[in-house]
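testing teh design pipeline on a random one, pls ignore if ur not involved
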């Protein structure tokens, strides 16, 4: 795409309204359609099911063996009733990150609504954590801390899991966001926004010495109960593509502005690089003015000497202008250079502690699909050639020569037709959200996990204009009158004929919604505290003692390629022991 095409595209974007209606669909489409290599011609749909299994079947040749899912288990999973199993599927990457960081408990216990009770078995670990302060340069990964201080805006480019006793943001409106990456936030005691104090307060020197990071924060900031905390993992889409090029969405308009760094605090790399999600399609070729038709030949006057013909000769015909070229169509989705779909949203998991206040917003919407390419503009027809005058007559003795006829003017070239606009690309898939919160706190929690809207349709190309007709000319003049003898004037010619108009192209179609609606799992914890867990529920598998007297359980993932008739074992992860 050249600079002129890009400018044309961005300027037209300014009039585009980003009004997209999000449509809910069945949870049966949760498992993304994939193709197994040996069955590509049949394009089967992959179905994933996660089930909980006790380790009662033992170990065979070093590999755990479990019975396949029952029809009832499959139905419960596909209809969204097994919400914890879905959360386990989303959490598996973050679980491994926590294991790699050396947590002494089984990370899957964080998906239990009473996980804080489970971790009473690990007070030594919790009390030994150190406080940390993260700035805007943090790009993602694993954070384990006592008190964690976060900036008001944290933009992540990697999967991220946060486990801390307390989490505080430096701002009354705080945001953690990624583009399609998984985010897990698990505060044990508190998560809160804050505001800067009008003046710092004195902190006990002993407290300062024990935990200087937390003490400095409490000296300069105070908790803000009415704060807003937003966590977003939405897919990268067309609006982000615009933003990365200095075009800002304002209301329902995209206004072309000088480039502004989209990263917080002047940081770099907050947008995924490289990415094509949401980028627009290539425009069809446009054409300029076609070639001009040749003018009439030069006139030939009469002559008393050469050929002895006093009459001026009639001038030949001018050539018509060439027709304007039909414009190219914008490539369609799936073709080389076509617009790309919006990115898929990542999963979000968060646990809001008892005693929390303020508002919490969670967004796992798929990215907006790419804008369809513009149809090219038709070319302008070439100008018709100009006519030239007829030859002038001369007088030879008493013979008066007549003037020749003027040449015929060239016809204007026809206009070129406009090209068709490209279709907008499909939106990205929504991500799954699992959030647990205290009893009665549900009105403070907002969640959206929608399919990404389809990309805007590519506008049609406009037809070109016909060329200008060639101009006419005068007829040749007769020779001078002699003895009352007059010659005749040659015939003048009119301008050439006008070219025909052609039709503009056809606009493309708006892209379709993403394939998958994210699953929202709201878990309200009962008041009065959780369960009293057995002493081994939260232990890691390699820490189990014989004295625990419990049965290890595993989350087992099966996949089917034939609609659920047969199931293949994929992997298993430890769920706990009870």
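output:
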């Amino acid at each position: 795409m050249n600079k002129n095409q890009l400018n044309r595209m961005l300027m037209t974007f300014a009039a585009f309204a980003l009004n997209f209606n999000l449509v809910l669909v069945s949870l049966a489409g949760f498992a993304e359609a994939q193709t197994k290599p040996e069955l590509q011609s049949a394009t089967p749909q992959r179905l994933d099911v996660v089930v909980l299994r006790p380790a009662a079947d033992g170990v065979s040749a070093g590999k755990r063996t479990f019975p396949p899912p029952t029809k009832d288990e499959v139905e419960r999973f596909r209809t969204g009733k097994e919400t914890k199993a879905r959360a386990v599927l989303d959490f598996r990457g973050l679980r491994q990150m926590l294991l790699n960081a050396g947590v002494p408990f089984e990370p899957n216990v964080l998906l239990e609504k009473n996980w804080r009770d489970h971790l009473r078995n690990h007070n030594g670990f919790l009390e030994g954590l150190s406080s940390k302060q993260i700035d805007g340069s943090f790009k993602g990964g694993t954070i384990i801390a006592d008190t964690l201080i976060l900036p008001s805006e944290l933009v992540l480019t990697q999967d991220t899991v946060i486990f801390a006793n307390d989490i505080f943001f430096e701002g009354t409106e705080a945001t953690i966001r990624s583009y399609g990456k998984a985010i897990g936030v698990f505060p044990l005691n508190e998560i809160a926004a804050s505001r800067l104090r009008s003046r710092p307060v004195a902190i006990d020197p002993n407290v300062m010495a024990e935990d200087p990071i937390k003490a400095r924060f409490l000296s300069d900031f105070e908790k803000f109960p009415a704060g807003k905390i937003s966590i977003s993992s939405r897919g990268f889409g067309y609006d982000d593509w615009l933003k990365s090029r200095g075009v800002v969405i304002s209301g329902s308009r995209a206004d072309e502005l000088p480039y502004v760094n989209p990263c917080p605090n002047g940081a770099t790399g907050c947008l995924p690089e490289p990415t094509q999600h949401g980028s627009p399609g290539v425009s069809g070729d446009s054409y300029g003015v076609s070639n001009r038709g040749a003018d009439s030949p030069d006139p030939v006057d009469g002559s008393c000497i050469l050929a002895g013909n006093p009459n001026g000769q009639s001038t030949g015909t001018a050539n018509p202008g060439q027709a304007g070229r039909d414009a190219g169509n914008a490539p369609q989705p799936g073709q080389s250079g076509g617009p790309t779909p919006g990115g898929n949203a990542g999963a979000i998991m968060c646990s809001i502690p008892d005693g929390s206040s303020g508002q919490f917003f969670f967004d796992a919407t798929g990215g907006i699909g790419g804008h369809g390419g513009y149809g090219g503009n038709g070319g302008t027809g070439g100008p018709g050639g100009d006519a030239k005058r007829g030859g002038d007559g001369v007088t030879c003795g008493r013979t008066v020569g007549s003037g020749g006829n003027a040449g015929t003017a060239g016809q204007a070239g026809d206009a070129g037709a406009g090209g068709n606009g490209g279709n907008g690309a499909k939106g990205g898939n929504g991500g799954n959200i699992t959030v647990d919160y205290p009893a009665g706190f549900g009105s403070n929690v907002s969640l959206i996990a929608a399919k990404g809207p389809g990309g805007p349709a590519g506008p049609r190309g406009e037809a070109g204009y016909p060329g200008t007709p060639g101009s006419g000319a005068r007829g040749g003049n007769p020779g001078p009158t002699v003895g009352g003898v007059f010659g005749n004037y040659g015939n003048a010619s009119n301008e050439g004929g006008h070219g025909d108009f052609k039709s503009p192209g056809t606009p493309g179609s708006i892209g379709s919604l993403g394939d998958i609606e994210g699953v929202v799992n709201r878990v309200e914890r009962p008041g009065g505290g959780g369960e009293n867990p057995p002493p081994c529920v939260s232990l890691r598998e390699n820490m189990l003692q014989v004295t625990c007297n419990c049965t290890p359980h595993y989350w087992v993932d099966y996949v089917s390629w034939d609609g659920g008739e047969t199931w293949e074992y994929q992997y298993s992860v430890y769920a706990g022991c009870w």
